[in-house]
Amino acid sequence: MHLLKYRLTKRQLDVLKNRKELIKAGISRRDLLKLGLMTSAGVLVDGLSVSRAFGQTTTPTAIDATGAITAVSRSTSQSCGSRGSSLCVVSPPIQPFLDLLPTPRDGTWRIQTPTALSPAPTVAPNTGAGEGRTIAHQAFTEFPPQKFYGVTQKAGALSITSDPTIDPQNLWGFAIGTPEQNNPINVPGPLYVEHYNVPILVRNYNRLPPEGQNGGFGKPSVTTHLHNGHTPSESDGNPCNFFEIGQFYDQHYPNVYAGIKSTHPGTGDIREALHTLWYHDHRVDFTAQNTYKGLAGMYLLFNDKDTGDELTGFHLPSFPQFDIPMVFNDKVIDPSTGQLFFDLFNLDGILGDRFLVNGKVQPVLHVSPRRYRFRWLNTGPSRFYQFFLTDLTNLGANNTFWQISTDGNLTDRPYQVSSARVSVSERVDVIVDFTGKAGKTFYIENRLIQSDGQGPSGGLFAAGQGDLILKIVVDGPVVNDNSQNPATITAFYGFPNTTDPVRVERTFVFQNRGDWEINEKIFACDDIRFQVLKNSNERWTIQNEGSSWHHPVHIHFEEFQTLSINGRAPATSPLVQKGRKDVARLESRDTHVVYFRFRDFHGRYPIHCHNVVHEDHAMMAHWEIVDTGGDTNPRP
Amino acid sequence: MIKMSRRAWLGMASAAAAVGVVGLPPLQRESRAAPLPPRELIRRRNFPNVVLTTHEGERVRFYDDLIKEKFVTVNMMYSTCKATCPLTTANLVQVQKLLADRVGRDLFMYSITLDPKQDTPEVLNAYAKTFGVGAGWKFLTGNPDDIEQLRRRLGFRWANQEMDKNKDFHTGNLRYGNEPLMLWGAVPGLAEPTWVSECILFADWPENRLRDRQRIVEAKSRKASDAGRTEPVAPMTHDHGQH
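^ inputs. structure came back:
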């Protein structure tokens, strides 16, 4: 471009480009002058910089003046008035603690079981048989599936509470098996209990009701993402790989450690083990609606260290008796319909005023006086939690527990904590010791103050003043506890080093410029913003430009290690930030520097904000792992 | 415990001060009518039936004439806006061209001014002409209070009050939706025109979807071959730059 020889600034180039776009659109210089959009010198008024500057002049102080809530009641009573919401819909009262927590230990949360699939899965998409996949499996013959599952996405009515004033909810969920098996839906979806080095294949059928029958929100077009799987792109559940009613999509999960085809041939690096994963709909532009409607579940991965048997390996509490996954989400029940309410036109994020765990409103869990592993997952859509264990008869007590994972990846060792913060899509595994607590009742209490979908204000409620989400009654029989006391566990796997040279450093700025953007660019499915060379290392700086909104940033495919947060090494107290993660929880103006190894597979993956409302409004970028080449764009 | 139906609960709810839909027409719970269908609730909550005037001087009701039974896009702009508006309008002109045989036939585009005092129908008419806006795309003005109500109900707002006060922060997103199908989404108005078109078509009538997707694929391949032929100047990207 000849103008480049004048070394125009990037801003001037942008202005010029804007002008060219306008002229391309058939608008003359005279028109622009008339509208005041061009100066007489022929320079297009660079209005966008006005908006950008404004975004940056919203000082922390100004934000705090509107963002900080100094005296709010607990969130159950103040989510109406959620600033920025176009509506104010408040759930009817629902009696808490009526229902037992559904768990895999008693079959009330179903475990996925294998199904015969016909026609047999193929490497190439079986378009003729109605498969919506468009890309061949890249690792199917290398890691041939040993187990085959069917799962059918469809509508159904489920009870979320025994409170008789609340109707069964019309949800979308996952039914075990093929459509012909006609099983009932599950919300959360069936639990996958899988093992490393046992590849599986899941055939996902879309049998959702047609458009116009969604009850007010939800799009019957889906793609199911296995969140933090080391999964080939075509099976990852990419937002743009959606498939339609009547179609199916085969997803191949190799269940291998990262490095298996590169740094650790044939075995993979066990230090890259993932244990608490989850799956959810990721349909571009409609993820918030579809996950809120029920399309989410969990996926556990065991190995010969984290075995599910407390007599072996790391001696973590046995699954499923003493290892209990917990899916947290917040909802609004519309008093006008008795059904779930979703604010279709909100841009900031949406909050619920009723809290569900494993599909039930404020349920109850009975435990024995011994150690348990709880696996906490927050499926959003927008709320952040900070969970404490509260004894209402002794509010001054500091009821500690042991955090053993960040995002389902074991930490270097257990950390004793008083609380754990879980933003949307993050997972935290903890060990809670109820030994000697027989007769007591505890609550999992969210004390994090958040009054709208932007993010928490930073403050905490006093003990007992937050939301009591799960009631835990220690009234089970005394049973053996062969699990190891976390205080005596000195190490799990350890972490891979973060000192190997990186091929490229990149920066990603998450920002609001009147729409949600990353690095001043807007998402499109076809726009691959950068290319990562397969089997290379990269260092990324991930920044929140604003202070109003928080952004839990998820990068598909690969766990990173956090090198620093705002220039400091990640802490282990009071909140555990050190560890391998797949979500960078960007709070006000946070900057995280993280280290990646991209190995083994190629293809397209997104980086996106997991406040699913932000995500659906384009706070996402597509990138690609390539076998050769790769770019060095520092700010893609 | 006495088993109470939801309807009975709804009947009682009018007495419960903490419960209800604030700032909206009462939902006539006392009538014990069947619960309102979701489509009707969306209408009541999001689509006030205010009277607006188009850039062609036609008086229309927002819900009855513009939204009901329709497949639409809605964005907000104002004629003196020097920020995203002119670029967005130009971008949407491209989108309109991509969807040429749909716009005005069974897809309707609306741009509502954020500055109704300044933006009279005449001003908007001149603006639309300047940008070469085609048939089926209406620029709308009206009573400032009605416009403000529309802005809030359609969610062109931010919780951050500093930003919410600035019109320029309400011009970034294009809403697309299909009223009877209850499908509503949004895409930044400055995204790649082919992508904006694709997103709009997410809310298309199902019978049209396959055909229109094909059209987008063709538009993309045309663009790719154009790019191959000419020197790569000022690509039509969404890197709308502001640094």
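DSSP finds seven helices and 35 strands in chain A. Chain A has four domains: 2-45, 65-86+331-488, 127-302, 504-626.
thumbs up if we can close this ticket
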